[in-house]
Amino acid sequence: MTTETFGPKCVRTANGPCVVAFDLSLAGTGIAYRDGSTATVKTQAKDGDRRLLQIAEAARLAVGGEHLGLGPAPDLVVLEDIPQNSFAAKAVSMVHGVVRAVLIEVGVPYALVTAATLKAYATGKGSGDKVPMAMAAYKRAGREFPDDNQCDAWWLWCAGLDQLGAPPVDLPKVQRDRLAKVTWPEVAR
């Protein structure tokens, strides 16, 4: 497993929410940590199903909590939903299972955002490749990412904060309205 970092402590303003986000994949899971920093958990096919344990451990560290010295657990975790009618759906479903189990253990509510909704939120268009997502991140926040996993995770993080009333980027209302398609959990802050 390789990552850039295992995320900083949750820094909240008096009323500010704390969000973590995951773009789940068996080969390269993107994580957006509490402060918006990002990393990719890269696994190797030769490790087989043990890769699931690597991703679960990265998720535990990302959502942390007081017992790991990371401050309070996040208010919300945002996950990119399992792709429908995709070759990758089976593997992504396994990753979702282990990460959701971690979130349930820690007691952190989570939301699922489809790829189309995320793209429409970030770019105004719900289809296309990953380039418009990266361009939108650069245009809106001056952010560049080493891979699309981190870019997607960062946009999921933005969506979660936006939903909780603390949007980290300025987007047109029509794009922000796309988040109404998501079933958001009740979040106690």
Can you describe this structure?
The chain is an alpha/beta fold and 189 residues long. 38% of the residues lie in helices and 13% in strands. The protein has a five-stranded mixed beta sheet, sandwiched between helices. Helix 1 packs across helix 2 (89-106) and helix 4 packs across helix 5. Residues 1-14 have low confidence and may be disordered. This is Holliday junction endonuclease. GO terms for molecular function: endonuclease activity.
Helix-strand layout with pairing:
Blueprint: E1 19-23, E2 28-32, E3 38-42, H1 50-63, E4 76-80, H2 89-106, E5 110-113, H3 115-123, H4 131-141, H5 148-163, H6 173-176
Parallel strand pairs: 1-4, 4-5
Antiparallel strand pairs: 1-2, 2-3
Short description, anyone?
The protein is of the alpha/beta class.
Tell me the number of helical segments per DSSP (H or I, 4 or more residues long): 6
Using only C-alpha atoms, the radius of gyration works out to 15 Å
Shape: globular
Question: At the first level of CATH, what is the class?
Answer: Alpha Beta
Strand ordering within the main sheet:
3-2-1-4-5
Quaternary state of this entry equals: single chain
What is the number of E strands? 5
The assigned CATH architecture is: 2-Layer Sandwich
Under CATH, the topology can be stated as Nucleotidyltransferase, domain 5
Beta-strand content estimate: 5-15%
Mean pLDDT: 88
Q: Biggest sheet: strands, sense, closure?
A: 5 strands, mixed
Kindly report the name of the CATH homologous superfamily: Ribonuclease H-like superfamily/Ribonuclease H
Q: From N to C, what is the helix and strand string?
A: EEEHEHEHHHH
Distance between termini? Answer: 33 Å
Low-confidence stretches: 1-14
Total domain count: 1
**Helix- and strand-based class?**
alpha/beta
InterPro entries: RNaseH-like_sf (IPR012337), RNaseH_sf (IPR036397)
Keywords: Endonuclease, Hydrolase, Nuclease
Protein name: Holliday junction endonuclease
GO molecular function: endonuclease activity
